[in-house]
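#lab-general

N.A. 3:47 PM
ok so I finally got the sequence cleaned up, no stray characters, all 205 residues accounted for. can someone with queue access submit it? mine expired

B.Y. 3:52 PM
send it over

N.A. 3:53 PM
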Amino acid sequence: MKQILKKFRRRNDGAVTVETSLMIMGLIILTGGAIETGYGFYQYNGAQQAVRTGARIAATSDPVARSINTMTGLSGSVSIGEAFPDFQVTCSDETRQCSDGSFDSTAMRRIIFGPDGDGICSATSRARRGMCDVFKETKRAQVEVSYFSSGLGTSGFHGDAAPFVSVTLRDVPLNFVFLDLVGLGDLVHLPPVEATLMGEDLKNG
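B.Y. 4:20 PM
back already:
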């Protein structure tokens, strides 16, 4: 028996096959990782383009928070003509609510689906693009729009809050090529993606 074991240990038949198999497995893992990483960056870039598009629309459209255009900033400590006081109003399409004032679903729909508000996510002309036309993975419940003070507004006048407008896309699952095959694709999400612009007239047209 000892003689057989010694002969078995000294034999190297098939060693090349085993080594090749291990190398191929390593190459497959590295290749798969590179593909997944590249696709992840591709999706993140798409999400960035979507929030930039949404921010451009939000900065030039009726605000999702209806209170923004009626705020005067006046209070016991703030008089007419003084700098607009700090404020922040956040609206979520998941809850259909804003932290202050009523929620304008038409304004949110315009941001997500574009100026035509057609409710369709597909390639279209630049002037008609909304967030989901740029990034199809955009879901309404993942979009938040915030309005916050820029320090440029003047108290005492309706529609003179001069806010920054921020659009955020959050909780977007990454679509992996290989993880999706084994049902693990929803485990990883993109970090929140945000774009902020200075609000302009905040009025459609």
